[in-house]
Design a protein that fits this description.
ClpP/crotonase-like_dom_sf, 2-enoyl-CoA Hydratase, Chain A, domain 1, three-stranded mixed sheet, 48% helix, 10 helices, six-stranded mixed sheet, 242 residues, alpha/beta
C-alpha cells in the first residue's frame, strides 16, 4: 500500500499523505515517494499541486518510531532527504497549496512552510521542536515567512502556536476547513492562470528568496554533530515525562 495517494486531475494534482495510523509521520519511504511525485508533477507541467493529510492531522513530522533501529549515519541521511524534499517543493515550478489540519509537528510544519499557499482548518496547531535535539531543519525558511524575531520566539521555546497566531504572523494565509477546499483550489487556479507560464516563471525567479544550499548546509552541520541518536532519545524521554 502506498504512503501517498495522487489524484491526477486535469486542472491539478492532489497529493494526500496516507499514513493515518501513524499521523502521517514522515518515514524514509514516504519522503522518497513525495520527492518522486513532485518530480513527476513538474515533468507533466502540472500547474498546481495540493498537499494534504489523511486522518487526524496533516503530519506529525519525522517518524520517530524508526529511530531506535537506525545508526547515526542512517538518521543523518533521512534528515538530508527531508531537506531535499522541502527544497524540491519550495523550488517547484508548480504552484503548491498546503491544506493543513489537526496537530502538526516538526518536519510536518516544514512541509507546510515549503508551499506557496498555506491554508489550515480551524483548530489547527503547529509545533517545531527540532532544536530541542539540536537539529536545524526548516528554521531559515520559517524565519523568511514570519520574520526573524518571531521565528526566534517560537523556535527557541519549541512553543505550540495555534491557527490564529499562525494567521497573525503570516505563516498561515487562509483559515479554511475541508468544506472550503474546492473554493480554495478554484481561487488558486485562477491565480495561477492570471499570468502566462513563462511570465510566472520570470516572476518566481525575480522574487526567489530560497537559499537551498545554505539551508542544506545548516541542516548537515547540525545533524552531523556526534550524538544525534542520543539527543533524539533524550528528547523522546523528556517528552514522555512532560
Amino acid at each position: 500500500m502506498s504512503n501517498i495517494i495522487i489524484d491526477r486531475q486535469s486542472t491539478h494534482w492532489a497529493i494526500t499523505l496516507n499514513r493515518p495510523d501513524k499521523l502521517n509521520a514522515l518515514s524514509a519511504s514516504i519522503v522518497e515517494e513525495l520527492i518522486q511525485a513532485f518530480d513527476e508533477a513538474e515533468a507533466a507541467h502540472t500547474p498546481l499541486i495540493t498537499l494534504q493529510g489523511e486522518g487526524r492531522c496533516f503530519s506529525a513530522g519525522f517518524d520517530m518510531s524508526e529511530v531506535e533501529a537506525q545508526s547515526e549515519g542512517d538518521l543523518v541521511l533521512r534528515f538530508i532527504r527531508i531537506e531535499t524534499l522541502l527544497n524540491r517543493i519550495a523550488s517547484s515550478s508548480c504552484f503548491t497549496v498546503a491544506l493543513a489540519h489537526g496537530r502538526n509537528f516538526g518536519a510536518g510544519v516544514d512541509l507546510i512552510a515549503a508551499c506557496n499557499l498555506r491554508v489550515a482548518a480551524p483548530g489547527s496547531t503547529f509545533r517545531m521542536p527540532g532544536l530541542k535535539f539540536g537539529l536545524v531543519l526548516g528554521s531559515a525558511r520559517f524565519a523568511r515567512i514570519v520574520g526573524t524575531r518571531e521565528a526566534q520566539r517560537i523556535l527557541e521555546t519549541a512553543a505550540t502556536f495555534d491557527v490564529e497566531h499562525a494567521s497573525a504572523n503570516g505563516f498561515i494565509e487562509r483559515v479554511a476547513g475541508p468544506e472550503e477546499h474546492i473554493t480554495v483550489i478554484e481561487e488558486a487556479l485562477a491565480r495561477v492562470s492570471a499570468l502566462p507560464a513563462q511570465s510566472r516563471a520570470l516572476l518566481r525567479r525575480a522574487l526567489d528568496t530560497e537559499q537551498a544550499d545554505t539551508d542544506l548546509a545548516a541542516l548537515v552541520r547540525s545533524a552531523t554533530v556526534p550524538g544525534i541518536h542520543k539527543r533524539i532519545e533524550a528528547y523522546l524521554a523528556s517528552s514522555k515525562k512532560a
